[in-house]
User: Fold this.
Amino acid sequence: MLFGSTRDELRRGWLEAWQRARSGAILTPLETQIATIVALHPEYHAWLERGDAAVQADFRPEDGNVNPFLHLSMHLALREQVSTNRPAGIDAVHTRLAERHGAHEAEHRMMEMLGRALWEAQRAGRAPDEQAYLETLRQLR
Assistant:
């Protein structure tokens, strides 16, 4: 388990990792990954420092609100996929896109496809189709 089993526990884990990084504390490998991802998103820094207000916030897409926790978590998920090369071939896709757009922008492009794959799987009540997901990633330019 990342930080816990509830939404609030997971969110607090993100906030605490960022706070520890900012204070110069020694970080676990996971906290280091989190701090690196958060550092790439200065638009979320002040918001992440709001403590319980950030933990309790609701983000409704229909209101035009981006969920920072979801966005940052998608980065973490993609980095895990690339580091383990699962689905097989995703590391090559990431390398190709990163050469063209930079690693961070490559992740943003890939996150859209990851979100779509997860949404389709949830809607169909099944596990994500890794091969279909990988094919959509390979089509990215």
Summary: The chain has a mean pLDDT of 93. The two ends are 34 Å apart (CA to CA). Residues 85-141 form one domain. Residues 103-124 form the longest helix (22 residues).
